[in-house]
Design brief:
- With 343 residues, the protein is of the alpha/beta class.
- It folds into two domains: 34 residues; 301 residues, Zn peptidases (Aminopeptidase), CATH 3.40.630.
- An eight-stranded mixed beta sheet has the order 1-2-4-3-5-8-6-7, sandwiched between helices.
- Helix 4 links the parallel strand 3 and strand 4.
- Helix 2 packs across helix 4, helix 3 runs parallel beside helix 4 and helix 6 packs across helix 8.
- The longest helix is centred in the first third of the chain and has 33 residues.
- The N and C termini lie far apart (70 Å).
- 46% of the residues are buried.
Amino acid sequence: MLLAKVSTELKPKRLLVMLSVPVCALLVLGWLLRQPILPPPPAAPGGPAAEPARLEAHVRMLSETLAPRDAAHPARLDRAAAYIRAEFKASGAAVTELEYTFQERNQRNKLEDQGPFRNVMARFGPESGDRIVVGAHYDAAGEKPGADDNASGVAGLLELARLLRLQAPPIRVDLVAYSTEEPPYYGTAFMGSGFHARALREEGAAVRAMLSLEMLGAFSDAPGSQRYPAPLARLFYPGRGNFIAVAGRYKDAPLARRVKRAMWAASPLPVYSLNSPPGVPGIPLSDHASYWDAGFPALMVTDTAFYRNERYHTAEDTADRLDYGRMAMVVNGVHAAVLDLAR
């Protein structure tokens, strides 16, 4: 009787332990993916701020006046590059270009020259020493407008240039607008970011961090507007697409924590981070992966692309569908993160 009583008393305890193990595992997984969890205190008001109207003007120029912006229309790409170069120069930056060509096989299996294409680069701060790279691709997928993908990222880059002119960084900051990110060159050595990252590696540049601005303008407060590559993610992330994401490899988690905290403190916009293996769907899908290949720490700042924006890579990805108020908050956050990383 005594043994039976002891056994009966142990069963609820054993059940509690069995239930607590997966719960604890989920809590740990959530912390690993989303760290940090607790928000920092808000930053003191003051300093330059991004302007929604300027962001919209840049997006409309790139997605309307200068469209299409794909490799099949090199003259249009050159016009987009010239626009970006002029805006960078107006910000007072030291502006240069990295021109590149390459060969690929045509339908007759013969090598054919492609290009020239160009990355447009703006430097702020001292010429030597450690640097931070912030980049965005200015080409679009085919003959689509590409307002969110990725005129929004380039608009953020141009507005960031204006903010850096008003509040100069103590170390070198390179803003880089890339060509040939989209198919047919995506995921190949011919991406503009690949040429830039390899040039930095050959130079022996000391890169503290690279931030890729990949689609910054699609937001929604509607329930269910945010999707994820895995159902489990719904346990840790919102169902509404009303936030900006900072995504990268788990090995870059310390960098993601710092960037997230700075962005979180800079505006009311919610910021979520994802630290994961690079093979998780969606994580490597932009220019930051070129810097991983070159051995540099890098993150993507994104509205999560096709996991939120159903107009991705369609003719409906137009300037009138973007949220420029929240885009400005993203740029303010990136500016704050750059200044924090530059300390």
